[in-house]
Amino acid sequence: MKLALSVARIEAMVRMALAIAFGALIFSGCTVYQTAPGVYSPAPPSAFDRAWEAARGAAYDEGVTVTSEDRSQGLIMGRRGPFDVTISLMTQADGSVRVSIKTRGPEAQDPTLNQRLTAAYNRRMGQ
User: Fold this and answer.
1) Burial category of 105 from C-beta neighbours within 10 Å (exposed 0-12, middle 13-18, buried 19 and up)
2) What is the pLDDT of residue 99?
3) Cα 89–104–64 angle (5° rounding)?
């Protein structure tokens, strides 16, 4: 009886081992694709996004208080002392962005404001 019990036990262990081997064999045919680490990064900002942020930053750098922003129209308006500042951005047909910086006010008080805004914009754009 003892021998029969151990034979039954051995048969059960063999069946279990075969079931595990069969399960491993089935799943070894499955392919799992993983993304490669460090390969994917977010899309870079568009030319308009970069220009918009550079224009806003240039206004901030030169002390312009922004009073109105309309991203869909590409307009940033603000004031610096007695000067009205208007920065307009327009996407061109080739995908580039045209930026226009205009100041209106008594030029004798700050004759280089427009030039400084342009320089700040160019700095922020890496030019």
Assistant:
1) middle
2) 96
3) 65
pTM for the full model? 0.67
Token reading at 15: 């069946």
Contact between residue 89 and residue 48 where contact means Cβ atoms under 8 Å apart: yes
Rounded to whole angstroms, how far apart are CA atoms 107 and 73? 27
Domains of the chain from N-terminus onward: 47-124 (3.30.530.50)
Q: What stretch of H or E contains 12?
A: helix 2-27
CB-based contact 21:64 (threshold 8 Å): no
The identity of residue 101, as a single letter, is I
Q: What tens digit of pLDDT does each residue of 9-25 get?
A: 778 888 888 888 777 76
To which H or E segment does residue 119 belong?
helix 113-124
Q: Which two tokens stand for residue 94?
A: 């080739």
Burial letters 52-78, b for 16+ CB under 10 A, else e: bebbbebbeebebeeeebeeeebebbb
